[in-house]
Design brief:
Rossmann fold, 8 helices, 46% helix, binds 1,4-dihydronicotinamide adenine dinucleotide, binds ligand LX64WSOE, prostaglandin metabolism, SDR_fam, fatty acid metabolism, Sc_DH/Rdtase_CS, oxidoreductase
Length: 257
Protein backbone atom coordinates (compact mmCIF):
# COMPACT_ATOMS: atom_id res chain seq x y z
CA UNK A 1 0.00 0.00 0.00
CA UNK A 2 1.43 3.39 -1.03
CA UNK A 3 0.62 5.99 1.61
CA UNK A 4 0.28 9.08 -0.61
CA UNK A 5 -3.34 10.21 -0.45
CA UNK A 6 -4.18 7.76 2.30
CA UNK A 7 -5.63 8.68 5.71
CA UNK A 8 -4.57 6.99 8.93
CA UNK A 9 -6.16 7.11 12.39
CA UNK A 10 -3.78 6.49 15.30
CA UNK A 11 -5.04 6.04 18.87
CA UNK A 12 -2.72 6.94 21.74
CA UNK A 13 -0.92 9.16 19.21
CA UNK A 14 0.19 11.98 21.51
CA UNK A 15 3.19 10.22 23.03
CA UNK A 16 5.50 7.24 22.85
CA UNK A 17 4.95 4.58 20.21
CA UNK A 18 1.82 6.27 18.84
CA UNK A 19 3.71 9.51 18.27
CA UNK A 20 6.43 7.62 16.37
CA UNK A 21 3.77 5.81 14.33
CA UNK A 22 2.19 9.16 13.45
CA UNK A 23 5.52 10.61 12.36
CA UNK A 24 6.51 7.70 10.13
CA UNK A 25 3.09 7.66 8.46
CA UNK A 26 3.37 11.42 7.75
CA UNK A 27 6.95 10.98 6.49
CA UNK A 28 5.63 8.45 3.99
CA UNK A 29 2.86 10.68 2.65
CA UNK A 30 -0.22 9.81 4.69
CA UNK A 31 -2.57 12.22 6.45
CA UNK A 32 -2.95 11.29 10.12
CA UNK A 33 -5.78 11.80 12.62
CA UNK A 34 -4.35 11.69 16.12
CA UNK A 35 -6.65 10.43 18.88
CA UNK A 36 -5.63 10.69 22.53
CA UNK A 37 -6.97 11.55 26.00
CA UNK A 38 -3.96 13.83 26.57
CA UNK A 39 -5.24 16.99 24.88
CA UNK A 40 -2.26 19.13 25.85
CA UNK A 41 0.29 16.76 24.33
CA UNK A 42 -1.94 15.98 21.39
CA UNK A 43 -2.62 19.58 20.42
CA UNK A 44 1.02 20.64 20.71
CA UNK A 45 2.14 17.63 18.66
CA UNK A 46 -0.43 18.44 15.98
CA UNK A 47 0.82 22.04 15.78
CA UNK A 48 4.43 20.88 15.47
CA UNK A 49 3.60 18.27 12.84
CA UNK A 50 1.48 20.67 10.77
CA UNK A 51 4.42 23.10 10.74
CA UNK A 52 6.70 20.31 9.47
CA UNK A 53 4.37 18.47 7.07
CA UNK A 54 1.69 21.03 6.14
CA UNK A 55 -1.96 20.72 7.17
CA UNK A 56 -1.96 16.94 7.11
CA UNK A 57 -2.91 16.19 10.70
CA UNK A 58 -5.95 16.55 12.90
CA UNK A 59 -5.97 16.01 16.68
CA UNK A 60 -9.14 14.84 18.42
CA UNK A 61 -9.46 14.45 22.16
CA UNK A 62 -10.84 10.92 22.34
CA UNK A 63 -10.98 8.21 24.99
CA UNK A 64 -10.98 4.71 23.47
CA UNK A 65 -13.09 3.56 26.44
CA UNK A 66 -15.96 5.60 24.99
CA UNK A 67 -17.92 4.19 22.04
CA UNK A 68 -19.53 7.61 21.59
CA UNK A 69 -16.23 9.51 21.45
CA UNK A 70 -14.65 6.96 19.11
CA UNK A 71 -17.67 6.98 16.79
CA UNK A 72 -17.61 10.78 16.61
CA UNK A 73 -13.84 10.79 16.04
CA UNK A 74 -14.01 8.34 13.14
CA UNK A 75 -16.82 10.37 11.55
CA UNK A 76 -14.84 13.61 11.95
CA UNK A 77 -11.79 11.92 10.42
CA UNK A 78 -13.81 10.72 7.42
CA UNK A 79 -15.53 14.12 7.03
CA UNK A 80 -12.22 15.99 7.22
CA UNK A 81 -10.04 13.87 4.96
CA UNK A 82 -12.70 12.05 2.93
CA UNK A 83 -11.61 8.51 3.80
CA UNK A 84 -10.04 6.19 6.38
CA UNK A 85 -7.53 3.68 4.98
CA UNK A 86 -5.38 2.80 7.99
CA UNK A 87 -6.18 2.36 11.67
CA UNK A 88 -3.51 1.90 14.35
CA UNK A 89 -5.23 0.74 17.55
CA UNK A 90 -2.29 1.69 19.71
CA UNK A 91 -3.67 3.29 22.91
CA UNK A 92 -2.87 1.20 25.95
CA UNK A 93 -1.88 1.25 29.60
CA UNK A 94 -0.09 -1.08 31.96
CA UNK A 95 -1.49 -1.13 35.50
CA UNK A 96 -2.30 -4.34 37.33
CA UNK A 97 -3.86 -2.35 40.20
CA UNK A 98 -6.55 -0.90 37.91
CA UNK A 99 -6.92 -4.08 35.92
CA UNK A 100 -10.49 -3.48 34.78
CA UNK A 101 -9.39 -0.22 33.18
CA UNK A 102 -6.47 -2.04 31.58
CA UNK A 103 -8.90 -4.51 30.01
CA UNK A 104 -11.26 -1.72 28.93
CA UNK A 105 -8.51 0.24 27.16
CA UNK A 106 -6.10 -2.41 25.90
CA UNK A 107 -8.56 -5.04 24.67
CA UNK A 108 -12.02 -3.51 24.51
CA UNK A 109 -10.61 -0.30 23.01
CA UNK A 110 -9.02 -2.32 20.20
CA UNK A 111 -12.30 -4.14 19.55
CA UNK A 112 -14.30 -0.88 19.63
CA UNK A 113 -11.90 0.82 17.24
CA UNK A 114 -11.78 -2.13 14.85
CA UNK A 115 -15.57 -2.45 14.66
CA UNK A 116 -16.10 1.30 14.17
CA UNK A 117 -13.42 1.41 11.47
CA UNK A 118 -15.21 -1.42 9.66
CA UNK A 119 -18.17 0.96 9.17
CA UNK A 120 -15.91 3.30 7.19
CA UNK A 121 -13.43 0.91 5.54
CA UNK A 122 -15.43 -2.24 4.74
CA UNK A 123 -15.67 -2.83 0.98
CA UNK A 124 -18.99 -4.64 1.53
CA UNK A 125 -20.54 -1.39 2.77
CA UNK A 126 -19.03 1.09 0.32
CA UNK A 127 -15.58 1.48 1.86
CA UNK A 128 -12.24 1.23 0.07
CA UNK A 129 -10.73 -1.45 2.33
CA UNK A 130 -7.39 -0.87 4.03
CA UNK A 131 -5.37 -2.14 6.95
CA UNK A 132 -5.76 -2.23 10.73
CA UNK A 133 -2.68 -2.73 12.93
CA UNK A 134 -3.30 -3.50 16.60
CA UNK A 135 -0.51 -2.82 19.05
CA UNK A 136 -0.16 -5.91 21.20
CA UNK A 137 3.13 -6.71 22.94
CA UNK A 138 5.64 -9.46 23.40
CA UNK A 139 3.44 -10.18 26.43
CA UNK A 140 0.79 -11.18 23.92
CA UNK A 141 3.02 -14.04 22.81
CA UNK A 142 4.74 -15.08 26.04
CA UNK A 143 3.50 -14.75 29.64
CA UNK A 144 4.65 -11.63 31.49
CA UNK A 145 4.85 -12.95 35.07
CA UNK A 146 4.35 -9.62 36.89
CA UNK A 147 1.47 -8.49 34.64
CA UNK A 148 -1.06 -11.29 34.19
CA UNK A 149 -3.95 -8.99 33.23
CA UNK A 150 -1.78 -6.97 30.83
CA UNK A 151 -0.69 -10.32 29.36
CA UNK A 152 -4.34 -11.35 29.03
CA UNK A 153 -5.23 -8.14 27.20
CA UNK A 154 -2.34 -8.43 24.78
CA UNK A 155 -2.94 -12.14 24.18
CA UNK A 156 -6.54 -11.15 23.47
CA UNK A 157 -5.42 -8.50 21.00
CA UNK A 158 -3.34 -11.10 19.12
CA UNK A 159 -6.21 -13.59 19.05
CA UNK A 160 -8.80 -10.98 18.04
CA UNK A 161 -6.53 -9.66 15.29
CA UNK A 162 -5.88 -13.10 13.79
CA UNK A 163 -9.58 -13.99 13.90
CA UNK A 164 -10.56 -10.68 12.30
CA UNK A 165 -8.01 -11.26 9.53
CA UNK A 166 -9.65 -14.59 8.73
CA UNK A 167 -13.17 -13.12 9.01
CA UNK A 168 -12.18 -10.28 6.69
CA UNK A 169 -10.97 -12.65 3.97
CA UNK A 170 -14.09 -14.81 4.29
CA UNK A 171 -16.40 -11.77 4.30
CA UNK A 172 -14.75 -9.76 1.52
CA UNK A 173 -14.08 -6.74 3.72
CA UNK A 174 -10.85 -5.91 1.86
CA UNK A 175 -9.20 -5.04 5.19
CA UNK A 176 -5.97 -6.60 6.47
CA UNK A 177 -5.54 -7.07 10.24
CA UNK A 178 -2.09 -7.44 11.83
CA UNK A 179 -0.71 -7.41 15.39
CA UNK A 180 2.47 -5.57 16.32
CA UNK A 181 4.18 -7.16 19.33
CA UNK A 182 7.07 -5.06 20.60
CA UNK A 183 9.31 -6.05 23.47
CA UNK A 184 10.27 -3.39 26.01
CA UNK A 185 10.24 0.11 24.51
CA UNK A 186 11.57 3.27 26.15
CA UNK A 187 8.37 5.21 26.81
CA UNK A 188 6.35 6.60 29.72
CA UNK A 189 4.62 3.25 30.05
CA UNK A 190 7.86 1.77 31.38
CA UNK A 191 8.26 4.39 34.09
CA UNK A 192 7.65 3.66 37.80
CA UNK A 193 7.22 -0.05 37.16
CA UNK A 194 6.71 -0.82 40.86
CA UNK A 195 3.63 1.41 40.91
CA UNK A 196 2.11 -0.44 37.98
CA UNK A 197 2.33 -4.00 39.25
CA UNK A 198 -0.40 -3.87 41.91
CA UNK A 199 -0.53 -7.17 43.86
CA UNK A 200 2.58 -8.30 41.93
CA UNK A 201 4.84 -5.43 43.04
CA UNK A 202 6.98 -8.03 44.85
CA UNK A 203 8.03 -9.09 41.34
CA UNK A 204 9.57 -5.71 40.48
CA UNK A 205 13.12 -7.05 40.60
CA UNK A 206 12.19 -9.99 38.39
CA UNK A 207 10.68 -7.52 35.94
CA UNK A 208 13.81 -5.39 35.88
CA UNK A 209 15.86 -8.55 35.27
CA UNK A 210 13.61 -9.40 32.30
CA UNK A 211 14.08 -5.90 30.90
CA UNK A 212 17.85 -6.25 31.27
CA UNK A 213 17.78 -9.66 29.58
CA UNK A 214 15.60 -8.56 26.65
CA UNK A 215 16.92 -5.05 26.17
CA UNK A 216 14.96 -1.92 25.30
CA UNK A 217 13.80 -0.72 21.90
CA UNK A 218 13.44 2.84 20.64
CA UNK A 219 10.04 4.02 19.46
CA UNK A 220 11.40 4.51 15.93
CA UNK A 221 12.39 0.84 15.71
CA UNK A 222 8.78 -0.05 16.48
CA UNK A 223 7.44 2.50 13.99
CA UNK A 224 9.54 0.96 11.20
CA UNK A 225 7.80 -2.36 11.86
CA UNK A 226 4.40 -0.67 11.78
CA UNK A 227 5.27 0.72 8.35
CA UNK A 228 6.08 -2.81 7.16
CA UNK A 229 2.73 -4.19 8.34
CA UNK A 230 0.85 -1.26 6.76
CA UNK A 231 2.59 -1.18 3.38
CA UNK A 232 3.23 -4.91 2.71
CA UNK A 233 -0.06 -6.04 1.25
CA UNK A 234 0.90 -9.71 1.69
CA UNK A 235 0.67 -9.27 5.47
CA UNK A 236 -2.68 -10.30 6.94
CA UNK A 237 -3.26 -12.13 10.24
CA UNK A 238 0.38 -11.71 11.24
CA UNK A 239 1.90 -11.16 14.69
CA UNK A 240 5.24 -9.41 14.31
CA UNK A 241 7.47 -9.62 17.39
CA UNK A 242 10.08 -6.87 17.64
CA UNK A 243 13.02 -6.82 20.04
CA UNK A 244 16.48 -5.21 20.05
CA UNK A 245 18.13 -8.25 18.46
CA UNK A 246 15.66 -8.30 15.61
CA UNK A 247 12.13 -9.03 14.56
CA UNK A 248 10.23 -12.16 13.60
CA UNK A 249 6.81 -13.19 12.41
CA UNK A 250 5.31 -15.62 14.90
CA UNK A 251 4.33 -19.00 13.48
CA UNK A 252 1.24 -20.44 15.13
CA UNK A 253 0.83 -24.23 15.01
CA UNK A 254 -2.56 -25.31 13.76
CA UNK A 255 -4.47 -27.87 15.86
CA UNK A 256 -6.12 -29.11 12.65
CA UNK A 257 -2.90 -30.46 11.12
N1 LIG B 1 6.43 0.70 26.18
C1 LIG B 1 6.55 -0.61 25.99
O1 LIG B 1 7.48 -1.28 26.48
C2 LIG B 1 5.55 -1.34 25.16
C3 LIG B 1 4.29 -0.80 24.90
N2 LIG B 1 3.40 -1.56 24.18
C4 LIG B 1 2.07 -1.03 23.87
O2 LIG B 1 2.25 0.10 23.01
C5 LIG B 1 1.11 0.96 23.14
C6 LIG B 1 1.60 2.38 23.37
O3 LIG B 1 2.29 2.38 24.59
P1 LIG B 1 3.48 3.40 24.91
O4 LIG B 1 3.70 4.31 23.76
O5 LIG B 1 4.60 2.63 25.46
O6 LIG B 1 2.82 4.18 26.13
P2 LIG B 1 2.73 5.73 26.48
O7 LIG B 1 2.13 5.75 27.84
O8 LIG B 1 4.01 6.40 26.22
O9 LIG B 1 1.67 6.29 25.42
C7 LIG B 1 0.36 5.83 25.44
C8 LIG B 1 -0.53 6.91 24.84
O10 LIG B 1 -1.87 6.42 24.87
C9 LIG B 1 -2.71 7.41 25.44
N3 LIG B 1 -3.87 6.78 26.08
C10 LIG B 1 -3.90 6.11 27.26
N4 LIG B 1 -5.15 5.72 27.54
C11 LIG B 1 -5.94 6.17 26.51
C12 LIG B 1 -7.32 6.10 26.24
N5 LIG B 1 -8.18 5.51 27.09
N6 LIG B 1 -7.77 6.65 25.10
C13 LIG B 1 -6.92 7.28 24.25
N7 LIG B 1 -5.60 7.40 24.47
C14 LIG B 1 -5.13 6.85 25.59
C15 LIG B 1 -1.83 8.16 26.43
O11 LIG B 1 -2.36 9.44 26.71
C16 LIG B 1 -0.51 8.21 25.68
O12 LIG B 1 -0.43 9.33 24.84
C17 LIG B 1 0.29 0.39 24.30
O13 LIG B 1 -0.78 -0.38 23.77
C18 LIG B 1 1.28 -0.52 25.03
O14 LIG B 1 0.63 -1.58 25.72
C19 LIG B 1 3.70 -2.81 23.69
C20 LIG B 1 4.93 -3.35 23.93
C21 LIG B 1 5.96 -2.64 24.63
C1 LIG C 1 7.32 -2.96 32.67
C2 LIG C 1 6.53 -3.38 31.49
C3 LIG C 1 6.88 -2.60 30.31
C4 LIG C 1 6.39 -2.80 29.10
C5 LIG C 1 5.36 -3.84 28.78
C6 LIG C 1 5.52 -4.23 27.35
O1 LIG C 1 4.31 -4.51 26.73
C7 LIG C 1 6.42 -5.38 27.11
O2 LIG C 1 7.26 -5.30 26.27
C8 LIG C 1 6.29 -6.58 27.86
C9 LIG C 1 7.08 -7.64 27.54
C10 LIG C 1 6.93 -8.81 28.31
C11 LIG C 1 7.53 -9.96 27.97
C12 LIG C 1 7.29 -11.01 28.88
C13 LIG C 1 7.70 -12.23 28.74
C14 LIG C 1 8.38 -12.76 27.56
C15 LIG C 1 8.07 -14.01 27.26
C16 LIG C 1 8.89 -14.86 26.35
O3 LIG C 1 8.13 -16.02 26.11
C17 LIG C 1 9.25 -14.13 25.05
C18 LIG C 1 8.08 -14.12 24.16
C19 LIG C 1 8.28 -14.07 22.82
C20 LIG C 1 9.67 -13.96 22.23
C21 LIG C 1 9.66 -14.49 20.82
C22 LIG C 1 10.49 -15.75 20.81
O4 LIG C 1 11.70 -15.64 20.49
O5 LIG C 1 9.93 -16.80 21.17
Amino acid sequence: MALEGKTAVVTGAAMGIGKAMTEILLQNGAKVVLLDVNATAGESLKEALNKEYGQKTLFLNCDVESEEQLKAAFQKAADTFGRIDILCNNAGILNEATWEKTVSINLMGVIRGSYLALEHMNKMSGGQGGVIVNTASMAGIGPFLSCPVYTATKSGVVGFTRAMAAASVASGYGIRFNALCPGFVQTELMSNIVDRLGRFSHLTDATHKLVEKMGVLSVSEVAECLLELVTDETKNGEALVVFPKGKKYVTFSSLLQ
